[in-house]
Amino acid sequence: MAEEVLSQSEIDALLSALSAGEMNAEQLKKEEKEKKVKVYDFKRALRFSKDQIRSLTRMHENFARLLTTHFSAQLRTYVQISVASVDQIPYEEFIRSIPKMTILNVFEVPPLEGRLLIEVNPNIAYAMMDRVLGGKGNSINKVENLTEIETKVMSNLFERACENLQEAWASVAEIDPMLTDFEVNPQFLQMVSPNETVVVISLNTTVGETSGMINICLPHVLLEPIIPKLSVHYWMQTNNKERMPEEISLLEKRIKKAELPIQAILGESTISVQEFLNLNVGDVIQLDQLVDSPLQIKIADHPKFIGQPGKMRHNIAIQILDKIKAGEDNGQ
After folding, report:
1. What class is the 259-323 domain?
2. Superfamily of structural domain 43-236
3. pLDDT tens digit string along 28-40?
4. Pfam families recorded for this chain (predicted)?
5. Which of the residues 18, 126, 174, 240 has the least number of beta carbons within 10 Å of its own beta carbon?
């Protein structure tokens, strides 16, 4: 059970009240023994632990850094993005908290089911679009009258930016974000039921002299398959499992059946390109070793043995005479 830690000023005030008789120590003990009841709102069910929320925060802090780098390069102006807060709230409460007319990008993230929503404050979105079109980054909020060109520019801008989401989520899931919908009115967008718990990551965003918020809405149905990976136990558990003897035996049998190429090197020679071009049938190329010299045997291009050529049952064969130790020359 977590204990509340008092500051030094609170401790001083408490001691002062006790010494002055304003508070009774016995009364304090009695209150402490009484059961404390905490009000629980079932409409605001907390379905994620603090540990899981911390993991999501770390993931999206990385995402914010990647977005900062991406937009700084794309817009060629000062961009700063950082995580302001991470909360779990009902979807209906999230919709009420954002402007009535705003920029809404809906993404599918296969193989995960469900969709995620990225809401961009219109001031930020227009400042970005102004920079892309060669302006100074001025912001005007006329989201109700978006032209087709403006809609296309904005959707392309955030679709390319969310490729960074794939990298930020790589530690828990291999996702492939795809923009599936672009909307300006939250009332026309019903991703999940109103009481469904969603995690909302709010990003403080500054583009040039314009500031605003980018909100990422992650429904519980989307995160459910990866919830175990958001726990600290997942990161602390070791992957070094002891193999059973049966597994080791089976592995050894499979390794012994693996095929390796073997080569017996009769010798080598070096000729010029001119000599190579003038070669004809019947010409002889002199090698760098004698007929009765031992041959080097290579296993998978690595020198391993010394041998001598011969025949076995009318087949060409080679007899192994000795091993080549690591770092040792065969004397050829």
Report:
1. mainly beta
2. CheC-like (3.40.1550.10)
3. 666 555 556 666 5
4. FliM (PF02154), FliMN_C (PF01052)
5. 240
